[in-house]
Each structure stands twice: as C-alpha cells, then as structure tokens.
UniProtKB/TrEMBL annotation:
This is UDP-2,3-diacylglucosamine hydrolase. GO terms for molecular function: manganese ion binding; UDP-2,3-diacylglucosamine hydrolase activity. Residues 1-199 form the Calcineurin-like phosphoesterase domain. Its EC number is 3.6.1.54. One of its GO terms (biological process) is lipid A biosynthetic process. It catalyses: UDP-2-N,3-O-bis[(3R)-3-hydroxytetradecanoyl]-alpha-D-glucosamine + H2O = 2-N,3-O-bis[(3R)-3-hydroxytetradecanoyl]-alpha-D-glucosaminyl 1-phosphate + UMP + 2 H(+). It is an enzyme of class 3 (hydrolase). Belongs to the LpxH family. PANTHER family: UDP-2,3-DIACYLGLUCOSAMINE HYDROLASE (PTHR34990:SF1), UDP-2,3-DIACYLGLUCOSAMINE HYDROLASE-RELATED (PTHR34990). Binds 2 Mn(2+) ions per subunit in a binuclear metal center. It comes from Vibrio aerogenes CECT 7868. SUPFAM superfamilies: Metallo-dependent phosphatases.
Length: 247
C-alpha cells in the first residue's frame, strides 16, 4: 500500500517526450497506488479548462483513465497552473485541493502544498502572484479568446523570465522561518512540497519532535516521484526519462 506524489512536470506541447513519460507513469505506476497527489505545475502553463488542443485532450483523458480505474487523484495549483478549474476537475475526475492542505498518510498528518508561498524572500514573485490571483483579473482574462490568451501569456512569460534571471539562488528557495511557522500552525511533523526544483529530504528537530520536509523534484531529463507507504517509509526516486520510456 502506497501513495505517490509528483509536481513540476511542466508539461507542454513543446515536450512530447514528457507527456509520453507522464502517460506511462499514470498507466504503469499511478494505477497501482492508493492515491496520486499532483502538487502543482503539472503544466508549463495552463491557460484555460476549455483548451481545445490535442495536448490538453490527451492529458485529460489519461487522468480520467486513472480516476475511473479507482485511483483517487488530487491536485494543488502551482504558480503555472493556477487557472486549472472546476471543469478540468469534472472532466478528469481529479479533486482540486486548497493551496495548503493537511492529509492523513496512513495515520501520519502531512501538510502538502506547491511550495511557492514558502518563498517569502522572493518579494517580486509574491507581488506578481497577488496580481495574477486577483479574481477580477482572472475573470477578465477568462473572457478573452483562447488565441489572445496564448499571446498574452507568452508575452508575460518573456518579461517574467528576464526578471527571474536577476535573482539569486537563495532568494528563490524557501524561507526556513516560514517553513517552521506553517508546520507549527498546522501541527504537522511532515511537509511535502515542490516548486523549488531542489529535490531533497530535510530533517530538523523542534519542540522535541522530528520534523521532515520533503521537496519533490521537477521533471525534465529525469522523472521524479515520491513514494510514501503504509509503514511510514518513503523514498524520492529519479529515473532518466530515456530509460523510463523504454520500459
Ligand atoms: O515557475 P518558475 O520556477 O520558472 O518561476 C517561478 C516564478 N515565475 C512565475 C511565472 C510563471 O512561470 C509564468 C507566468 C505567466 C503568467 C501569465 C498570466 C496570465 C494572466 C492570468 C490571469 C490574470 O511564476 C518566479 C519565481 C520562481 O518561481 C522561484 O520562486 O522567482 O517569479 C518571477 O520570476 C516573477 C517575477 O519576479 C515578477 C516579474 C514581473 C513582470 C511583470 C509582468 C506583468 C504583470 C501582469 C499581471 C497581470
Ligand atoms: Mn512552481
């Protein structure tokens, strides 16, 4: 018995090999799990639940196969797919969760999130995030035709990419005080998140208890998956995408 966690796949039509690896992962691994949690940035950018492309259709169908097969699938928005909405959930059978959610993992309380909100030192990002999360901005954006939305996103992405290049490695990591604060607030000893693309398992001690923070890895040349089993054992696995696709 085990549960799987993934994040930061950044799927897009530009990388069909990633989409193929994701489909393979769903077909061969996810269906055998008790549950699959996708902790954000499944997509490079998700513009609209009504995305008419074959790419969107293919991903939705692959997720639907998993949920129809009896594996519950949960999704938390990332900074690149915060526009995934109810229609996507209905079409795929995936359950959308709040941005900070506490789950029970075989009796162990775990806080799960994308991880961007832990990066308190990245002030410019947080200001940007606040803007794009404003409901009125999103409502206006939704009204636009798909092609116009694609153009706007691509223009903003170019500006944002330039801004990101000027940031230090430290600024783009989680803020340790914030990590401790959210874990204390939620009364958990386990935190699982992605976003930083720095896969690792961090442990520290506080208030006489061992705290664990698991950071999921991004997908690119490798796929990255966290397996957590019913005995409370866990491992972060990485596998070269070329080897994975050959299986
Ligand atoms: O994802 P990753 O790891 O590459 O970088 C993130 C942060 N970047 C982002 C940007 C997304 O990748 C792409 C967003 C496209 C948005 C389209 C919006 C369409 C409208 C929606 C409806 C209203 O999230 C990056 C972090 C990094 O993680 C590490 O934490 O640093 O943040 C940035 O680089 C953000 C810049 O610092 C902010 C630059 C502002 C530029 C002004 C653009 C105009 C704003 C218009 C708002 C509507
Ligand atoms: Mn992210």
């Amino acid at each position: 018995m085990h549960t799987l966690f993934i994040s930061d796949l950044h799927l897009s039509p530009a990388h069909p090999e990633l989409t193929a690896a994701f489909r393979q992962f769903l077909r061969h691994q996810a269906i055998h799990a008790d549950a699959l949690y996708i902790l954000g940035d499944l997509f490079d950018f998700w513009i609209d639940d009504k995305d008419p492309t074959d790419f969107a259709r293919e991903i939705k169908a692959a997720l639907k196969d998993v949920t129809s097969g009896g594996t519950p699938c949960y999704f938390i928005h990332g900074n690149r797919d915060f526009l995934v909405g109810k229609r996507f959930a209905t079409e795929t059978g995936v359950t959308l969760l709040e941005e900070h959610t506490v789950i029970s993992l075989y009796g162990q309380r775990a806080l799960i999130m994308h991880g961007d909100t832990l990066c308190l030192d990245d002030v410019r990002y947080l200001q940007f995030r606040e803007k794009v999360h404003q409901p009125w901005r999103q409502a206006l954006f939704r009204l636009l035709p798909f092609r116009i939305k694609q153009k706007i996103v691509s223009k903003i992405q170019t500006n944002v990419r330039q801004d990101k290049q000027n940031k230090s490695f430290e600024i783009m990591d989680v803020n340790q005080s914030e990590v401790q604060r959210v874990m204390n607030d939620q009364n958990v000893n386990l935190l699982i998140h992605g976003h930083t693309h720095r896969p690792d398992i961090h442990t520290y001690h506080s208030s006489d208890s061992k705290k664990v923070r698991i950071v999921l890895g991004d997908w690119g040349k490798e796929i990255s998956v966290l397996t957590y089993d019913h005995l409370g054992q866990y491992h972060l696995d990485r596998q070269l995408i070329t080897e994975y696709s050959d299986q």
